């Protein structure tokens, strides 16, 4: 399918066989044909009320390898394949294609610092401490996240495990639901999603809450689905409108919240955490090379 067919016709031909989630994406693209050019995969998923993974499946159902190829196809059809417009859509409004490296660096630093400061200002420290207390005294911690948030979930799981917290991270919804259904009142479940609308993460956190786990949402949208089902919601900064993809700034906001949690948990588990950190450092020390010797540069005597 697709040879000689416009994207609109491909959507129409496939529409009847599409699942509900994919039909929502079809609705957005049909009503706003330029949306794929103007929006990242995450933004399109949010607008359609679905997930980036579903957007990818939608693109493949139309005969494209992925979202990038789909965007190129849309751009060429509507005559918006201009390189400058594509740059702004994919890279960001604050960055020029001819900017010097120093300017790119300064712009990035300013945007990331703004994101971190906004996150710090939005955080409710009493809520953060409540979550830290729950994790420190928990029997088990489940951490759910998909895509970029899944990477952050795995990072947090590794840190908690190293200081003695029985933690697991899940990105696959089937595996996550299997774990969530086995949680109980002594468990903590954390869902990470910048938008708070990622369906898989919402499902996993909801299931964990239904089994009695203390649930935590980490999201920038306090009114989102994820925040609505959580016992506690910790706020991050909204993605910068200047950065593409959005996760360039999202990850730093999420990591700030999790770094704070990690340190507060380690404080409460001071003796055990210190012992475990020392033991793990010793365990891998044999796999680290010693510092390289610095060669002394001979100083030539001044000749007279």
UniProtKB/TrEMBL annotation:
Residues 5-81 form the HTH rpiR-type domain. Gene3D superfamilies: Glucose-6-phosphate isomerase like protein, domain 1, Winged helix-like DNA-binding domain superfamily/Winged helix DNA-binding domain. Keywords: DNA-binding, Transcription, Transcription regulation. PROSITE patterns: HTH_RPIR, SIS. One of its GO terms (biological process) is carbohydrate derivative metabolic process. Residues 131-271 form the SIS domain. InterPro entries: Homeodomain-like_sf, HTH_RpiR, RpiR-like, RpiR-like_SIS, SIS_dom, SIS_dom_sf, WH-like_DNA-bd_sf. GO terms for molecular function: carbohydrate derivative binding; DNA binding; DNA-binding transcription factor activity. This is Transcriptional regulator, RpiR family.
